[in-house]
Design brief:
The protein has 191 residues and is of the alpha/beta class. Helix content is 35%, strand content 20%. The longest helix has 13 residues.
């Protein structure tokens, strides 16, 4: 993000993870020196040490499902987002905690694995003040189409095999965005 002229702020509850991030940023071979170095902030799980309305975007990758106080953390994200800001999330599906891998993580490493129930998240987000939730499609594995299915799809009809694949993908991964008011375009014209 720094190489895209953004001013990233890296936030984590793990001091070790932040130190690793700092080291990797220094060692990462770049073709151009970023305009601004990222900031690395330790998060206590409750308060983001930033002023109100101070960040335009939040990117949260596979971490919300580890948060025991989800509504409190969402409220803190809302507080630091500027009007028109967007918080984006990539999270595992709704029954993630039941997966054998998640069960092993909880048993062996004392990791909290919660399910992401987007309807509950949206209910909490609305209470906090978020104005909209949007979803991005993600297809894994990627979908290979026959010429027949492709032609059927481009004519506006969704073959059953494709709708089932989309349904499985959408329940396996949740990629969603919470808006604080109407999204504001950034300098690249992207909301």
């Amino acid at each position: 993000l720094a190489l895209l002229d953004c001013r990233p702020i890296c936030l984590d509850v793990s001091e070790t993870a932040l130190q690793l991030g700092q080291r990797l940023f220094r060692e990462w071979p770049s073709l151009d020196e970023p305009i601004e170095q990222p900031r690395f902030l330790l998060f206590d799980g409750r308060t983001i040490c930033l002023p109100d309305n101070s960040v335009d975007r939040i990117a949260c990758f596979e971490s919300l499902h580890h948060v025991p106080n989800m509504q409190e953390v969402l409220a803190e994200m809302y507080r630091v987002l500027t009007p028109g800001g967007i918080a984006g999330f990539v999270e595992p599906g709704e029954h993630h905690s039941e997966h054998p891998f998640s069960q092993a993580e909880m048993l062996n490493y004392d990791v909290l694995e919660l399910d992401i129930v987007v309807s509950d998240i949206w209910k909490a987000a609305q209470t906090i003040g978020f104005s909209d939730i949007r979803f991005s499609m993600f297809s894994f594995p990627s979908l290979n189409l026959s010429i027949r299915d492709r032609n059927t799809l481009t004519k506006g009809h969704v073959p059953r095999s494709i709708s089932q694949h989309i349904m499985r993908s959408m329940t396996s991964w949740s990629i969603f965005f919470l808006n604080k008011g109407d999204p504001v375009l950034d300098s690249r014209g992207v909301s």
